[in-house]
Q: What sequence folds into this?
């Protein structure tokens, strides 16, 4: 274990065997020893390498959280799985020895990129030093909240950030500006007092919280998402001139088409397929995927480039998009509009009749999209319902695409990627910005076709860059940790489903389990639990494969308008293949790519959280007038504090406190993902169908509280194993006589 720790976790069995001089027989014993240490929780795996649980990577995005008693800055990792690794480590922040950081020195609340190292013989809570590589984001000095006016003309601010709930700020009348009761405002704290509330001053009135626009602004501000482009970036975008044919292949006669959602404004991918005329590839196809050439407009180090990196990706809300690039670039110069010349980076791929890729080549081209199609429109044409646009495209364009997709399906089935059944809901808004309804869009073959074409193009990009030895940012997805696999195995045993123990797990093993429960009442439960056992996909400059897609190498290439990772891959391809002077600079180092990967991974998680919270607030607004109504749903989460329930109609997620479940003590059984009454044996388990009544809604927080109406299942209570062997008990149960504070899943 000391050897593993000393090497920062970048070791496997081969490195250990070499270091300790082990032969074949010893390696069998080593394998057993490592498995024993893993079962005891003393070792884990990350990127197929061994590490000590809770070990920090060499470069980590961190937030400075405080100063210690000596005035030293202390940071913690921004992205840390507490469920898997325990409490986040505290890092002693050091400034770089050589030179100074550009701009102001970091302080509490700032986000910084740290190069970490373990402190030898550390004897306290702080076991790591972190050298500041870059100041990523300064602490925000403004607080967002709801203004509540008082009789004196001033008021109080109710913060919308869940971490600051209950920490109100006083706003005197002369500091209130033109804020009105119920307005969403941003304020600046101007004075702290020894006693009483801090004093704040309104800096900006953002509008009434009854509007959907204000709800989006809550998420944008709360997560620090850059939503206003800097002046110099806009100036660069406006000054950009359309790319010309010079230095490009002319593909304008190739009938490429875009297939997107009906409301899409930026079209960054177009596709084409035709039978392969090579006699050695009978039944095969030539697939073409053309991607908007964003690298032609966004040069490394430019104002637009810095802005795109700061954003990391576009963020999508029900009524708006916060784009990664200005509209002049994303919706005009780079968007593959129909019948307009556009520069593209294209990959041409030959696949066999079995769908396996035989060869590929990349080209920098000028293209002209033959048509802009919506998914449902393209699918309708294939199903026999053509319109004026699809009728002339049916035989020459659409049918070859579907024929090629038929071959790709064979390759997908042979590869057996993880195939979870998790329907996605979409919110439809009324013209006034309020919720109209929530729908589950139908999953069409048109969606799957584009998905398979894009996956193959992404694989081709990663393969080319590896072959040319040009650095890149991979899209990676680690296999589930030993700890999560152990928990999943224990849970499946409660359903009489066996998951064999093995060092290496494959997606097909999960698919076999999903196939066993498909169509049964257990299907939603098993899909959710398997999803929660998975690692989170991320970006990295080191390749450790994509477990979910069951691919050895994978890089995002197909969406450079909305993802910075794809722009990096485009630049790398331009450099690797000598396609222009705007490729990835030769001076870019692996350390810099590691920094970029950490930043855009954090930006992606930030966007996902903001999108999810906005949907929660919208639905809470929508349901606030339905207090007392009953709904059908399914238990979507179980904790010792209570149950989370997702409603069938809207997907709204609400909480049922354990103290309201019944006249019993409910303990949390981690293995079963359930709360079980100690006296009655009544069980409420993840995935169970339930009927609930809405008793409280907090629209600003996006929280709902339910009361359980239906009864749970009954099981035999094992008195010898309290709390599932972990001693985790719920609280004593009494039905509340008044409203309780709403809980919300973290």
A:
């Amino acid at each position: 274990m000391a050897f593993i720790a000393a090497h920062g976790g970048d070791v496997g069995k081969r490195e250990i065997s070499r270091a300790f001089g082990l032969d074949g027989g010893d390696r069998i014993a080593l394998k057993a020893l490592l498995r024993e240490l893993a079962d005891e929780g003393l070792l884990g795996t990350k990127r197929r390498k061994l590490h000590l649980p809770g070990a920090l990577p060499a470069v980590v995005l961190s937030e400075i959280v405080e100063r210690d008693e000596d005035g030293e800055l202390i940071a913690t990792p921004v992205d840390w799985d507490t469920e898997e690794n325990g409490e986040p480590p505290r890092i002693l922040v050091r400034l770089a020895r050589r030179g100074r950081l550009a701009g102001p020195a970091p302080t509490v609340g700032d986000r910084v990129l740290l190069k970490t190292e373990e402190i030898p013989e550390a004897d306290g809570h702080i076991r790591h030093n972190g050298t500041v590589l870059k100041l990523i984001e300064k602490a925000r000095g403004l607080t967002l909240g709801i203004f509540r006016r008082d009789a004196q003309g001033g008021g109080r601010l109710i913060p919308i950030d869940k971490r600051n709930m209950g920490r109100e700020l006083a706003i005197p009348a002369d500091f209130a500006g033109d804020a009105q009761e119920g307005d969403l405002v941003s304020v600046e704290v101007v004075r702290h007092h020894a006693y009483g509330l801090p004093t704040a001053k309104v800096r900006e009135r953002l509008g009434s919280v009854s509007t959907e626009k204000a709800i989006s602004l809550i998420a944008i501000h709360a997560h620090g998402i850059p939503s206003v482009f800097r002046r110099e970036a806009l100036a660069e975008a406006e000054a950009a001139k359309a790319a010309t044919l010079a230095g490009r292949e002319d593909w304008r006669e190739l009938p490429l088409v875009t297939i997107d959602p009906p409301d899409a404004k930026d079209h960054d991918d177009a596709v084409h397929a035709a039978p392969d005329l090579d006699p050695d590839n009978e039944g095969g196809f030539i697939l073409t995927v053309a991607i908007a050439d964003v690298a032609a407009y966004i040069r490394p180090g430019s104002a637009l480039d810095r802005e795109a990196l700061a954003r990391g990706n576009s963020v999508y809300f029900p009524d708006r998009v916060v784009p990664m690039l200005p509209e002049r670039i994303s919706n005009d110069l780079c968007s593959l509009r129909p019948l307009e010349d556009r520069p593209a980076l294209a990959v041409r791929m030959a696949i066999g009749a079995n769908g396996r890729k035989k060869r590929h080549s990349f080209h920098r081209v000028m293209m002209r999209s033959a048509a802009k199609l919506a998914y449902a429109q393209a699918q309708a044409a294939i199903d026999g319902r053509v319109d004026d646009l699809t009728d002339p495209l049916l035989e020459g364009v659409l049918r070859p695409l579907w024929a090629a997709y038929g071959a790709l399906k064979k390759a997908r089935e042979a590869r057996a990627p993880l195939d979870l059944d998790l329907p996605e809901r979409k919110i439809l808004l009324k013209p006034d910005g309020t919720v109209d309804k929530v729908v589950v869009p139908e999953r069409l073959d048109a969606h799957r076709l584009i998905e398979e074409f894009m996956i193959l193009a992404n694989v081709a990009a990663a393969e080319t860059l590896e072959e040319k030895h040009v650095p890149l940012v991979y899209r990676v997805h680690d296999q589930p940790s030993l700890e999560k696999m152990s928990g999943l195995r224990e849970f499946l045993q409660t359903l009489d489903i066996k998951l064999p123990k093995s060092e290496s797990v494959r997606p097909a093993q999960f698919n076999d389990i999903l196939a066993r429960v498909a169509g049964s009442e257990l299907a939603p439960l098993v899909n959710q639990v398997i999803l929660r056992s998975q690692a989170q996909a991320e970006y990295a400059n080191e390749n450790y494969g994509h477990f979910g897609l069951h691919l050895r190498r994978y890089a995002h290439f197909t969406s450079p308008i909305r993802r910075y990772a794809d722009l990096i891959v485009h630049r790398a391809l331009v450099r690797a293949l000598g396609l222009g002077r705007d490729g990835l600079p030769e001076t870019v180092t692996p350390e810099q790519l590691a920094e970029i990967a950490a930043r855009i991974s954090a930006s992606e998680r930030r966007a996902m959280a903001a999108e999810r919270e906005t949907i929660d607030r919208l639905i809470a607004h929508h349901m606030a007038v339905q207090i007392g109504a009953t709904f059908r749903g399914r238990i979507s989460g179980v904790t010792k504090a209570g149950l989370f329930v997702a409603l069938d109609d809207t997907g709204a997620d609400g909480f049922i406190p354990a103290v309201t479940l019944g006249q019993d003590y409910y303990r949390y059984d981690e293995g079963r993902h359930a709360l079980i009454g100690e006296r009655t044996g009544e069980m409420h388990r993840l995935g169970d169908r339930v009927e609930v009544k809405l008793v409280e809604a907090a629209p600003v927080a996006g929280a709902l509280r339910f009361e359980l109406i239906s009864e749970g299942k009954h099981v035999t209570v094992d008195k010898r194993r309290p709390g599932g062997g972990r001693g985790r008990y719920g609280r004593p149960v009494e039905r509340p006589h008044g409203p309780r504070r709403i809980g919300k899943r973290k």
